[in-house]
Amino acid sequence: MKLWDKGTEINALIEAFTIGRDTEMDYFLAEFDVIGSLAHIQMLESIGLLTSQELKVISDELREIYKIIKSGKFVIEAGSEDVHSQVELMLTRKLGDTGKKIHSGRSRNDQVLLDLKLFTRAEIKTVTGQILDLFELLMTQSEKFKTVLMPGYTHLQVAMPSSFGLWFGAYAESLTDDLLLLQTAYRIADQNPLGSAAGYGSSFPLNRQMTTDLLGFESMNYNVIYAQMGRGKVEKIVAFALASVAATLSRLAYDVCLFMSQNFNFVSLPDELTTGSSIMPHKKNPDVFELLRSHCNRIQSLPSQILLITNNLPSGYFRDLQLIKEIFVPSFAELKSCLSIACFAISNMKVNDKIMDDSRYENIYSVEVVNRLVIQGVPFREAYRQVGESIRDNEFHPDKSISHTHEGSIGNLSLPRIRERMDQVIESFNFQKVETAFNQLLAEDIQP
Question: 322-347 vs 108-144: helix axis angle to the nearest 10?
Fold first, then answer.
């Protein structure tokens, strides 16, 4: 069944090429297609395109289809071009011509736009929860190891004293900015495109505000052409946000790979979290973090891929946009897997709390000595020269006591402030509004 079928047989080779992996991707969208349809038919009834009895029977049958989808038994049959066709086919089998009325006032263009936005909102909610889990772990580790010093580096050269608490806390705060970007992307996705039809609206007196409210959207894409132009743009913006999270994870993974090498020996993993070599019995490889890094680097390529697919497309719908689903939809699962394994591995990581006992790090305290001389009244450039000469002449024997007090330093990690920022970002998502709207659509008992 094809919603656009006019009786012409399509060449099998052309059909296979144009469908591609679209059916596979549509399984991710199936439950949202049903939820969108539940809202759409309530609006159709309100403007007189469905009777109250038709609304009830279609709603009841859509909820049955939803249950089939959630049970994992939903199948897009051979001959059904997509999830939209399959849902309409199932309705028509049960309800006859009444089932065919569900498509009034919309196109597959705004239908897939809607499905993708509903899917994206749900996936962002899940990803946000996992980011928060990793944030909490990093904050716990930061507090736990706040007094355990480690070398800080610039240019991969020993630079100044740092701490494991400062290192863990840096990635926790990085996630707050990542989540702020994701929250912005969420708000852009949280605009209802339904009613834009094929990109030029409808002669039916559609009530777009009604479907906006029923689906828990913050707002709608008002201009129907722009609603269609949002296809690809929304995915690109969300992809940038996902890439930002991935960049934080990738950098963290690179640090761990570096810190686990014998030349650093800052952290270690239990044997069961490492892999070995087929010829070198001593090897304990951090493969989990190497693969975490590469997965996240691949996610960081996603915005560029979407950009190249959409680049220079004029207004209106084009089939090019279909390919975005193939790279965009699976990216959430890949990032969620990365977040999950990062939490697991970091929670099992062991910190070397004796690393600063190594004599190779003595010169790291030179800035501390310079600053003490300045406090005693020595001009900074003179203090710098004196300490530099003592290092050159192998006469530098530092006092290793550290006293940093300003915000965000070793002695004042500002963890409550970082947590406050994260709490503000989390509260701004307002996920509850969507959950309430969906529950009402799925549970409402409509009486004719």
Answer: 20
d(C-alpha 47, C-alpha 436), whole Å: 24
Q: If you count them, how many residues does the chain have?
A: 448
pLDDT of residue 6: 57
Tokens of residue 418, six digits: 């970082």
Place of tokens 């897939």: 112
Per-residue pLDDT of 414-425, as tens digits, reads 999 999 999 999
Q: Facing residues of 162 across strands?
A: 150
Q: What is the CATH number of domain 12-104?
A: 1.10.275.10
Cβ-based neighbour number of residue 129 at 10 Å = 13
Residue pair 105/40 in contact by the 8 Å Cβ criterion: yes
Smallest CA-to-CA distance from 63 within 82, 85, 42 is with 42
Cα 348 from Cα 402, distance rounded (Å): 29
215 contacts 32 by C-beta, under 8 angstroms: no
Partners of residue 359 on adjacent β-strands: none
Burial 289-306 (b: 16+ CB within 10 A, else e): beebbebbbbbbebbebb
- Give the dihedral sign, CA 35/36/41/42: positive
Structure tokens at 330: 């699976």
Cα 392 to Cα 94, 187, 285: the distances in Å are 88, 57, 38
Can you tell me the distance from the alpha carbon of 22 to that of 30, in angstroms, rounded to the nearest whole number? 12
Instruction: Tell me which H or E stretch contains 392.
Output: helix 380-392
Query: Maximum CA pair distance of the chain?
Result: 94
Q: Report whether 388 contacts 301 (CB < 8 A).
A: no
pLDDT tens for residues 227-254? 999 999 999 999 999 999 999 999 999 9
Taking the whole predicted model, whether its pTM rises above 0.85 is answered as: yes
List Cβ neighbours of 217 (8 Å cut-off, separation of 6 or more). Answer: 190, 191, 192
Q: Which residues of 71-83 are buried (b: 16+ CB within 10 A; e: fewer)?
A: eeebebeeebbbb
- Under CATH, domain 108-357+414-440 is a member of which superfamily? Fumarase/aspartase (Central domain) (1.20.200.10)
The C-alpha angle with vertex 220 and arms to 100 and 246, in degrees rounded to 5, equals 105
* Torsion on CA atoms 54, 57, 63, 68, rounded to nearest 10: -120
- Domain positions in the chain are 12-104, 108-357+414-440, 358-405
